[in-house]
Amino acid sequence: MKTTKLPKAELERFVSLLSRFGEVHAPVERNGDFVFERLTHWADARLDYTRTILPPKKYLLPPQETLFRFDAQNGYQPAAARLGQRLVLFGVHACDVYGLNLLEEVFDGKYPDPYFQTRRKNVAIVGVDCVPDEHCFCRGMRADFVDHGFDLFLYDIGEDYLVLVSTALGDDIVLAGQGLFREVTPADTDEYKRRSSAKRETFQLDVEIRDLPEIFEMEYKSDIWEELGERCLSCGACCMVCPTCYCYELVDGVELGSCAGERMRCWDTCVFHTHALVAGGENFRENRADRIKFRFYHKQRGFVVQYGRPACVGCGRCIVACPVGINMVEEIERLRGARDTATC
Amino acid sequence: MTPLLAESRLEPVGWAENPFQPYLARIVRIERMMADNHLFTIRFLDTARAEGFRHKPGQFVMLSVLGAGEIPISISSPPSRNGVLELCIRRVGRVTSALYRLRTNDVVAIRGPYGNGFPVEAMAGSDLLIVAGGLGMAPLRSLLWYALDRRERFREITLMYGAKTPDGMLFRDELVSLLDRDDLRCLLAVDADPTRNWRGHVCRLPDLFAHAKIDPQTTYAAVCGPPVVYKFVLDRLLQLGFSKDRILMSLERRMMCGVGKCGHCSVGYKYTCIHGPIFTYWDAINLPEMI
Predict the structure, then answer these.
(1) Which residues of chain B make contact with A112, given a CB cutoff of 8 A?
(2) Do β-strands B85-90 and A64-71 pair in parallel, antiparallel, or remain unpaired?
(3) Adjacency order of strands within the sheet including B37-44
(4) 3-state DSSP helix/strand/coil percent for chain B, to nearest 5?
(5) What is the rounded CA–CA span in Å between residue B63 and residue B113?
(6) Do A124 and B5 touch (CB under 8 A)?
(7) Which of A35, A210, B122, B257 is most enclosed, with most CB atoms within 10 A?
(8) What is the ipTM of this complex?
């Protein structure tokens, strides 16, 4: 992978360079929180942000999108017109890049999803490294570094960013911005390594995932699930903010007085009561405890079987978003703990 | 000047195979099998699609009723008879209620087939035992006719089908006509016979095992029915000495995509839509909450 160096003093010109490759979206501050939004002024980009409310998933799997327009004459016509918009996501953390990589796998496979894949091809990703806060456990989830899924990745080394170039597109960006970039010196690499080691010590939350699938099997009937079911409100906030939750439902919206309309897909979550409800009234996960257990189980056990790693990147959003304080890391530790000494 | 994205990003995405694309199809026949259980015969409007559609027994399609929504329906028609699809559909929810308001020649939309289907390649050369209870015949009829249409591929074939009454039996006339075949043990049971001219057995479904000698070493069992059927039939098969891998079950869950994306049919670490809907009995007891 090529590396180069971008002086922080050149950020304004760098953003302007990025805007030649697509509409630039970056984390900006809104009422004390951070959100990914269209960057109207380069200095609004908050590269020191902790986490955005919603992950960049919203650009590739929007909360609601039209898949088809239908009527009796023409059948179901794909609504693909707006998928081609070029975006540059600037300032994506490693955990979120990891999340997008997992979604890309889910929406590929035997039945690639052309809506997701078309969007993905039109999105360029410029990552930036971060300082973990008290809710980050990406290191435990092994998502504190990514080796693909971004075009450029910026590592803070003081006065400059060390830039990893991962794709041909990333290389095109660097070539188009010739004057901005500098040679990397051995001292720069040393500074990167020093900071990387120091970052390791700053994590306040850790989780061991190696034996989790086995523990989830053994503790499938644990009382912890019932307790969690008592606390969980089934509000779905944890899933909405999750970079790796991808459940959706299909909704047909019909124009009044006709059979014409739109088939939309909208985010759904496995903690909603209707998630496994079928016609006739049978509900395969009737109880809240079953549903929150399913969410944990699918992330830390089920997804591992299918995709080789958990569907969790340790971004901490679910911990921040949960109105009743359910904390994935604490619950995993409780499951892992011996019964009589269960602690956090 | 707007530089282009790198060439690699410009490879077209496969819209020709949009897995969510439903294709218009016409209802060519509606046969009332029971109150609220009709057999819909459906043909794609596009002739090439109608003639080119191929499925394995046990697979399903996603059926759209315009303006009402989309649902998974198992395919009841035999794979050997192409051109039309037969879907046995119970009126139970919003989409099926809308479907029941349609008439012959009205248009719906279909995509698929989806799911693994029965492992017919592995089953070839074995005895075949099909056990259905109530509406469980709907997905198994496809397997039954697959085997009868390729009779030489299987050794003994046994059908055990139980319903409450003769009127509650799907495909009753067709199945009764199979009673006379000598290359099939067709065992049909009803709990009670108010008609008094029933040619089959009057007993519980598991009692039919008394009428057939089944060799568990050489037989694949395919089972579908309500929970009570699973409870008694599975016990019976295990008592006979069936390996859990030779008992195949067709299961159902809520589905919205049919292609392993939307998450609804997830059970444990499998998706009913792509890893099923045919599961072995081992899968079924090994996956939490499968049965």
Answers:
(1) 13-14, 17, 19
(2) unpaired
(3) B69-74, B60-65, B107-114, B23-34, B37-44, B85-90
(4) 30, 30, 40
(5) 10
(6) yes
(7) B257
(8) 0.90
